[in-house]
Amino acid sequence: MMKNNKDDDPIAVDTSMVLSKIRWNPSGTIIAVAGCSLEYEEKRAVVKFFDSKGNHLKNLRVPNAETVTDISWEGSGLRLAIAAGSNIYCAAIRPNYKWCYLANGTLV
Known about the structure:
- The chain is mainly β.
- It contains no helices and seven strands.
- The strands form two sheets. A four-stranded antiparallel beta sheet has the order 1-2-3-4, with no helix packed on it. It has a three-stranded antiparallel beta sheet with strand order 5-6-7, with no helix packed on it.
């Protein structure tokens, strides 16, 4: 991942996949990497999620397909459309929110 085309210190991520599509969410905090995973004996369609620093967040296995052909984020960044084979899947993304409970009963 590079900040721009002259970045002297880009972040390299080994996804262990044959990539078909890569898309940033609208806020630029999560990158979805889609394709065919090389981690299993047979081909499996997978979408992997990484944060902006290259840390792995989550894997999403797509059923009944060997590879993902396309992905697209919804405008809010809370949903992802996944095209695999002759199917289109919709995934709801639930980010981990930081929260705090205060002594007066307020949840922040």
